[in-house]
């Protein structure tokens, strides 16, 4: 269990990251900062604190996936998450595993090497 000091540092770090990437905005109904806050539900899995993502993590991943409904939404979300991930200590391999572990077919590739401007990667997407 995290002590008060650890929680303070976590919240401070989140605030700094949100300030850094907050200017990127997903054109859908969710901003970059909202997407990051939403995905903090997945932090235990993404940082090796947990072997499996929680049900809540998978639900928010699915919801976020549906909110990024256009190619531009997906590009913006890709840039947002790619920029924010290192500051949260996200392990790239865990990020790649997340959709499969949650049973969610996502529209935004999770790969630290992806060129977000090349989205769409899948046929049949807007």
Automatic annotation (TrEMBL):
Key words of the record: Lipid-binding, Signal, Transport
One function term, GO molecular function aspect: lipid binding
Record-linked Gene3D superfamilies: Plant lipid-transfer and hydrophobic proteins (1.10.110.10)
A GO BP entry: lipid transport
Limits of the Bifunctional inhibitor/plant lipid transfer protein/seed storage helical domain: 32-116
Span of the signal peptide: 1-23
One Pfam family, short name: Tryp_alpha_amyl
Protein family according to the UniProt entry: Belongs to the plant LTP family.
Name assigned to this protein: Non-specific lipid-transfer protein
Phylogenetic placement of the source organism: Eukaryota, Viridiplantae, Streptophyta, Embryophyta, Tracheophyta
